[in-house]
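TICKET #2291
ISSUE: user wants both folds in one file
ATTACHMENT 1:
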Amino acid sequence: MIFGKISNPQEYISHHLHHLQINLYNLKIIESNDISFHYWAVNLDSIIFSLILGCFFLIVFHIVAKNFTLGVPGKLQAAVELIFEFVHSNVKSIYQGKNSTIAPLSLTVFIWVFLMNSMDLVPIDFLGFISENIINLPNMRVVPSADINITLSMSFSVFILILFYSIKMKGTIGFLKELIFQPFNHPVFFIFNFILEFISLLSKPVSLGLRLFGNIYAGEMIFILIAGLIPWWLQCLLNVPWAIFHILIIFLQAFIFMVLTIVYLSMASQSHKDLN
């Protein structure tokens, strides 16, 4: 039973997997029991929590930067400095070249993804109870990275940067040459090369987004299954160990997303080699 409305585990699980959706065509909230297809549906909860977490990240780091001291740092400044050093060391060891954008981008990606993943540790019924009983909203999913629309949006943003730096460093002709002349530099294989390289190029953002979504969605699903299928007095024995293990997943997925972003941009920023 959840909020006095859901009477069986199937309804409980289905309820928690439904987003707070709004139909842009008529600006109406889509109810969870509405199974019709909505082309203009937008997952409003994912967007709201993504923006809130992004603003939280900017505000905290702005406060630290504004109150920065060269003396003995406070706990918050020390934590931020450790994060800066961690990201900087990874960028320095992976990125081949000089680009003032890569480090801030990597920091933003790492912290933002980490914060979105961390929402998975919030009790699944806590914000749901608030949304239904106080704000009067039918559904609320609070883990933006468990929404494939969010993860693919972030990964395709990285993809746009990959294309930008590829064309900037190699030129349009050089970029097209890499798609046509590699890996087999022979006219017979030009079409095959293009298909192979195009698929390889497109697979970068797709795999980047799907990897993050799959791992966080699976973690969220386990929390939902524990809450929906297991008696309340036994849930703590399973939730606590899984939450402790999930902390590692939360950090690891944010780290992988950041590292792959750096790797892909490093590959895109390499100077074009003459293939003629």
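ATTACHMENT 2:
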Amino acid sequence: MNVVELPIEALREAPWNANQIDAAMLQRLRSSILKYGFIQNLVVRRIDNGYEVLSGNQRLKLLREFNLSKAPCVIVDLDDAHARLLAQVLNHTHGSDDLGLRAELLREVLQVIPEQEVISVLPDTVAGLSGIGSLGRETLAGYLQNWEKARAARLRNLLFKLTQDQLQTVEAAVARILPEARLQPGINPNARGTALYLLCKSFLDKENKHGN
């Protein structure tokens, strides 16, 4: 498999790309790139007006932000259906961590690299990182408490299965409360997640009020 340097102006974001990240995760990606550089190749295919990015659309945004002229790319020759399938494979095929091994790895990292620097490039909170890092070093009660913190730190998305009609209703409700959600301090870095939380909280508050 050959890696080629392609000009940024020839690269096109896939309009059908379903893989999105919020501002906090984009900042972590930005920090990682600033620290280590672009070490992961983009995967692209040829189209009429250039190359369509199948994997690396978020990195492409940062390439443009950093005013870079070229990007390392792997070129594949695929039709529309296989291009979309490959994008899903590349964006969603992930393993799961052995928490014990990850705890030991992070302990070694934190002995050398400051905590804030680690947090800037990993999708963990300070509490979650501390929880993972102390696994196996405390009593069973402490172990379980920290395991729960670590587990919570990894739950970045809560997925629901909705019909199209249900989704339209949820989206309409979220859109109405979104301005308020954006003003909430420190609840959730994801405004849509905060909006959903506020909707649920409002429902429970009304139920509790009627119950009393």
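RESOLUTION: both attachments delivered.
EXTRA DETAIL ON ATTACHMENT 2: The longest strand covers residues 70-76.
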